[in-house]
Design goal:
There is one protein chain. By secondary structure, this protein is mainly α. Helices cover about 80% and strands about 0% of the residues.
């Protein structure tokens, strides 16, 4: 949405420039006209400027509206992340109080009943944190682990906000 916010004013400016260039080209080609035609031409230009001004106002309003929607969604996402972190902390506290990990489910244990390796997400999180502690940036970490950079950035953001 940031690109859309930046794109709309650029489009409006390009539109204005195209209009000015076309006006200049017409002015060079137009022979001298009688006063009545010149007056009509001035009225049309004024109308065009007014329309262009109204268009610019609408573009600015649309940009403001998109910006406020993005801001609202960002605030909501941050709140949901905080709520998730609180629930994770509560779960960790419950596990610590009972001094045990949750009993393995059939999907996390092998046929002998022994727990399988740690949760893949926990393993990924540990790997991301380790590489970040070693000074690697998110792009390098994502490449080394074969993950999307957005996933790596989210893991690191959750670490720093916690």
């Amino acid at each position: 949405m940031d690109t859309l916010r930046n794109f709309l004013p650029v489009v409006a400016i390009l539109f204005i420039l195209m209009a000015l260039f076309s006006f200049a080209a017409r002015k060079r080609q137009a022979p001298r006209t009688p006063a009545r035609d010149q007056l009509e031409d001035l009225k049309q230009r004024k109308s065009f400027r007014d329309d262009l001004g109204n268009l610019m106002v609408e573009v600015e309003e649309l940009t403001r509206r998109f910006s406020s929607q993005i801001d609202a969604k960002t605030v909501r996402l941050e709140r949901l992340i905080q709520e998730a972190e609180i629930r994770i902390d509560q779960l960790n506290q419950l596990e610590a109080r009972h001094g045990q990990k949750p009993s393995p489910t059939p999907s996390t244990s092998d046929s002998a009943g022994t727990p399988a390796s740690a949760n893949p997400m926990q393993t990924l999180t540990r790997s991301v944190h380790t590489l970040a502690d070693q000074g690697h940036d998110p792009a390098e970490i994502a490449e080394k682990l074969g993950e999307h950079i957005g996933k790596v950035e989210l893991i690191l953001a959750l670490r720093t906000s916690g």
